[in-house]
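Practice problem: predict the structure.
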Amino acid sequence: MYNKIVFLTRKNFFYVDFKLHDSFSNRIYLILFHLCFILVDLKNKRNDKNYQQAIFDFFFKQIELNFRELGYGDTAVNNKMKNLISLFYEILIKCKKWKLLQNDSKNNLLLNFFSNNYNNKILSNNLTNYFDKFSSFVEDMSLNSITKGVFNFIYKE
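Answer:
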């Protein structure tokens, strides 16, 4: 599942069509939003918190390894991970309420995380549309598909 989500965050349309800056932080935000939508849906489909915790642990272990590969030391990694986990929970709370939000609220929420120098309104509208579709896609997935990471989300405007 981790590889599938990382693959989704590397899609060119984010950076070419949406004009999102291709930065480490934006990729992390994309990973976290995807992960949160999946975890929210898993909670709705199954009450096994151990499985959700295992997914969380695996994702954050992979992100920690990526920080270390970038050359960060122990202290920097620990600080970055602490901040990232806090950010994750902030995003998770927002994703739990996603379906209840109006588009303007979704756009503003996304602009708090993602920004660019081109046109923030276009970016936020595109990201809102994308995550609306991703959220619906995950809702329609079977529990088995989610847990095995067997899914191929294809974004079409």
